């Protein structure tokens, strides 16, 4: 989503699964007996707040109500996950029927706690074959241990924006495809001030506190396996972990070192403003999502720019084209007394091809169904199409669900901040400590 409301790098972390389950007075097994053909009003809570987004979702609801004149949808926007979860714990008539979230990180808790109902029985009753409708990677981040408690409602793909003018000036013919090319091009594109004490431009800012640079996004280019079959963290056993941190250090060192880059980073403007570092020419290459292109066009960027997949490790060149995927998810509240009617809205928003295409075009997001991804009605903008290819790529990665929600991602972030600052003196020992911390929090969330 064009998350113009909150930084994407800050996952919403919920309480433990046990706490979430407390107050779940009406957990559903999909046996809701309300009649969706009778007049009914259902509540839909979502997080969209920007005027264009709100118009797009309201237009979607209008299309739904035209198809289902007996169902009235009361939509409430700009609602956070914390507010939704508080309402679902309390239950009652004021709680929503249909819920959505801008983060996939908490799906494991939604499913495990029973706060969001299992949608498989609803799909079976209405003949929706999820494996034929939704890409497997998106089904993976909307389910947990066989419980499909959410469905994807558009997706986000991450790639690399690059300044074509800067590339031309530096004599670089195309975007880098491997990490060794990435490092060499970043160094070549970096320009210091005349006194040599600061930067005019950095090739690629690898520092993890920058905008969308959460370490899990760049780490996706290695395709790491976060958990073993028992659900235990295995980052210390993952060979990609070591190559990832070594490579990011090489990126840092090639452009002047962590201290100098971090000082330059703190001079950047707000991510969502016209002082964004890529828009203002301070970055030649930049990790970001598909919505950034629309913002660059709206701001009338003063340079020619393009989009490409992020580079991949040299020994995995065949995976070039991959990227990090996430997206908005939608589901049905366990406390809803109108679950069959609620399902009709969820099904329409997530699986109706025409609806998905219109919504994707309206807010410049990646469609989340096979049919919509292939639709000739999709925005033909070639930069947007690059993100569609990233979303289709079989190597693209989503974060695995966990009962501790997004806490393990926060823990990886915190570790990465220390590692890039040179505070982790033994990487293997540090990763083992990280594994123990993640496992301890996962165990706590299960008790």
Structure, described:
Helix content is 41%, strand content 13%. The chain has 447 residues and is α/β, with parallel strands linked by helices. Strands 1, 2, 3, 4, 5, 6, 7, 8 and 9 form a 9-stranded mixed sheet that branches. It is globular. Residues 1-31 have low confidence and may be disordered. It contains 19 helices and 9 strands. Helix 2 runs antiparallel to helix 15, helix 9 runs parallel beside helix 11 (239-254) and helix 18 (407-420) runs antiparallel to helix 19 (427-446).
Element-by-element helix/strand order: HEHEHEHHHHEHHEEHHHEHEEHHHHHH
Give me the count of strands. Answer: 9
Distance between the termini: 34 Å
| Radius of gyration over C-alpha positions, nearest whole angstrom | 22 Å
Total DSSP helices: 19
**Structural class estimated from helices and strands:** alpha/beta
How is the main sheet built?
9 strands, mixed
Tell me the helix content: 40-55%
Beta strand %? 5-15%
Shape: globular
Mean pLDDT: 90
Q: Low-confidence parts, pLDDT < 50 over ≥5 residues? A: 1-31
In short:
The chain is an alpha/beta fold. The protein has helices spanning 17-21, 51-67, 81-90, 107-113, 120-126, 130-133, 136-140, 164-170, 179-189, 215-219, 239-254, 258-265, 291-298, 339-351, 353-363, 370-373, 382-392, 407-420, 427-446; strands spanning 40-45, 71-76, 98-101, 151-163, 191-192, 199-204, 283-289, 305-308, 325-332.
């Amino acid at each position: 989503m064009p998350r113009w409301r909150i930084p994407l790098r800050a996952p919403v972390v919920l309480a433990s699964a046990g706490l979430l389950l407390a107050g779940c007075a009406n957990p559903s097994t999909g046996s809701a007996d309300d009649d969706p053909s009778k007049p009914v009003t259902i509540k839909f809570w979502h997080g969209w707040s920007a005027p264009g987004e709100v118009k797009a979702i309201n237009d979607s609801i209008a299309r739904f109500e035209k198809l289902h004149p007996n169902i009235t949808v009361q939509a409430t926007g700009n609602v956070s996950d914390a507010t939704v979860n508080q309402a679902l714990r309390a239950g009652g008539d004021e709680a929503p029927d249909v819920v959505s979230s801008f983060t996939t990180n908490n799906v494991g808790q939604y499913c495990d706690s029973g706060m969001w109902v299992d949608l498989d029985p609803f799909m079976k009753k209405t003949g929706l074959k999820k494996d034929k409708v939704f890409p497997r990677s998106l089904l993976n981040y909307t389910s947990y241990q066989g419980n499909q408690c959410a469905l994807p409602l558009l997706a986000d793909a991450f790639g690399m924006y690059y300044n074509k003018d800067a590339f031309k000036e530096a004599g670089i013919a195309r975007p880098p495809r491997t990490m060794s090319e990435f490092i060499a091009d970043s160094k070549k594109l970096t320009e210091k001030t005349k006194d040599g004490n600061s930067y005019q431009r950095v090739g690629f800012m690898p520092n993890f506190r920058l905008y969308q640079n959460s370490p899990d996004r760049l780490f996706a280019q290695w395709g790491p396996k976060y958990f073993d079959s028992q659900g235990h963290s295995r980052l210390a056993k993952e060979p990609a972990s070591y190559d990832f941190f070594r490579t990011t250090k090489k990126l840092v060192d090639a452009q002047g070192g962590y201290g100098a880059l971090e000082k330059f980073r703190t001079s950047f403007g707000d991510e969502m403003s016209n002082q964004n570092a890529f828009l203002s020419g301070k970055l030649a290459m930049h990790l970001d999502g598909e919505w950034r292109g629309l913002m660059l066009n709206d701001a009338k960027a003063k340079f020619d720019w393009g989009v490409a997949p992020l580079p991949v490790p040299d020994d995995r060149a065949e995976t070039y084209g991959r990227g990090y995927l996430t997206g908005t998810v939608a589901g049905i509240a366990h406390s809803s007394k109108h679950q069959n009617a609620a399902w009709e809205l969820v099904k329409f928003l997530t699986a109706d091809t025409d609806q998905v295409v219109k919504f994707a075009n309206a807010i410049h997001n990646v469609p989340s169904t096979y049919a919509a991804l292939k639709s000739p009605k999709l925005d033909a903008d070639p930069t947007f199409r690059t993100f569609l290819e990233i979303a289709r790529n079989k190597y693209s990665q989503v974060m695995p669900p966990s009962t501790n929600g997004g806490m393990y991602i926060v823990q990886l972030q915190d570790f990465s901040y220390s590692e890039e600052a040179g505070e982790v003196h033994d990487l293997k020992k540090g990763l083992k400590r990280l594994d123990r911390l993640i496992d301890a929090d996962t165990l706590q969330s299960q008790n």
